[in-house]
Amino acid sequence: MFRGFESSLDYYIAHPELHEMSRGELFLHDESLYRSLLRDHTIIIAISEFDEEYSERGRMGGQVKPLSELEIELIVSKHETYNRNPSEAAKHLPYTADRIRRVWRNHELETIGRGNSSKNA
C-alpha cells in the first residue's frame, strides 16, 4: 500500500500532474514517491529512460505516458506469443522494444535478441 493506493505506481498513474516530471523533478517534488518507485523497480515504467523517451514519444503522439496495469498485463501476456523477443513484439504492439524488454524483465521473464544482457534494466 502506498498512500491508499495498491502501489506507488498506481499512485503515480492516478496523479497526472506528475507525468511530465523528469526523475530529478519528481525526486525534488516528492522524494518518498520517487524512492518507492525506485525500490519497487517500477520507476522505469513510470518515467522512461532518455533513449527510450525519444523513440516512445514518436509512438505515443509526442508524449511519454506511464503504462497502466492493463497495458503491463497485455505486454506480459505477449511474452510467449512473440517467443520472448521484444523486437518482434514491438512490431505488433504500440510500445518500443526497450519498453517491452523492461516490462518483461520486471516480471522476471527471459528475453532474447538485441539488447539482451545480464543486467536488469
Output mean pLDDT. Answer: 82
Largest sheet: none
Helical content band? 40-55%
Structural domains: how many = 2
The helix-strand sequence is HHHHHHHH
Number of strand elements: 0
**Number of separate helices:** 8
Query: In percent, how much strand structure appears in the residues?
Result: under 5%
Rg calc: 14 Å
Determine the N-to-C terminus distance. 24 Å
Shape: elongated
- In the predicted model, the low-confidence regions spanning at least 5 consecutive residues are 49-55
Q: Helix- and strand-based class?
A: mainly alpha
Structure description:
- This protein is an all-alpha fold and 121 residues long.
- It folds into two domains: 1-47, no CATH class; 67-121, no CATH class.
- It is 52% helix and 0% strand.
- It is built from eight helices and no strands.
- It has helices at residues 8-14, 23-29, 31-39, 43-46, 50-59, 69-77, 86-92, 97-106.
- The longest helix is centred in the middle third of the chain and has 10 residues, at 50-59.
- The chain is elongated and about 40 Å long.
- The two termini are 24 Å apart.
